[in-house]
Structures are given as C-alpha cells and as structure tokens.
C-alpha cells in the first residue's frame, strides 16, 4: 500500500465517522428541542412557563394567577384548533375548485401535497382538540385523498 492510498483511506474513514457523529448528534438535539417546544405549547407547559416568567412572590399569588394562565392556555388552544379547521377547509375548497381543470394524476399530486402541509400548533400534529394535540383530527376533517365528486 502506498502512502497516498493510506492517507486517502484515513481521510475517507474520518469523513464517514464525522458524518455519522454529526447526523446522530443533530437528531438527538432536534428530538430534545422538539420535546421542549411541545411541552411549552400544551396548557400545563404554557402555564408552568408563564409562572416561571412571572415568578410569583407567594403561593397565594401563584394560586390567584394560575386560573388566568389556564384560561389563556385554553383560549390559545381554541385559536390554534380553529385556525387548523379554517386552513383545512380553505385547502379542500381549493382542491374542489381545481379538480375540473386537472387530470387524475395532477389531482393525486395536489392531494398528496395538500395532505403534507403541516398544521399550526404543537409539533406539527394534525388537528387535535383544543387541549393541544392529545387526540386525532377533528371530526369531519379530510386528510389527502381525491376530492369529493
């Protein structure tokens, strides 16, 4: 083996090891960050975060603040839920309006793409009740598939 070949093998091995370590480290960091963001978006996480920001002086103050924070978290959940419902309805209306102008393969591609559009809210989950994604899609919500005739 020549020195040049040994150097090339060492460089390639270093590149593979570095790429692998970077890939796994990034995936671990992203997963951890996604869990933190999701926790903040759920009402208990939102309430706890806001309490940390406010730093109540006493338990009495904490007890008086908590109901207001829980109400705000519930309102935020409803806003996100309603926005997702309106988004889905608008996208379904667009697909229905475009359907007569498109052939079947175009309708299929459009349906797949519209189904891939992430909803607003926690962790990119689809739909969910106002309690921030603890359930499935709202009743009657359509996900992908060809438009109705």
Explain what the structure shows.
It is built from four helices and no strands. The chain is an all-alpha fold. It has a domain at 42-124. Helix 1 (3-41) crosses helix 2 (43-54) and helix 3 runs antiparallel to helix 4. The longest helix is centred in the middle third of the chain and has 40 residues, at 59-98.
**Total number of beta strands:** 0
- Measured between the Cα atoms of the first and last residue, the distance is 69 Å
Q: Please describe the biggest sheet, giving its number of strands, its sense, and whether it closes into a barrel.
A: none
Q: Spans of 5+ residues with little confidence (pLDDT < 50)?
A: 125-149
Strand content: under 5%
The mean pLDDT is: 77
| SSE string | HHHH
Number of helices: 4
> What is the CA-atom radius of gyration, in angstroms?
24 Å
The rough form would be described as flat
Assign the structural class, choosing from mainly alpha, mainly beta, alpha/beta, alpha+beta, or little secondary structure. mainly alpha
Percent of residues in helices: 55-70%
Sequence-ordered SSE layout with sheet pairings:
Elements: H1 3-41, H2 43-54, H3 59-98, H4 104-116
Helix pairs in contact: 1-2, 2-3, 3-4
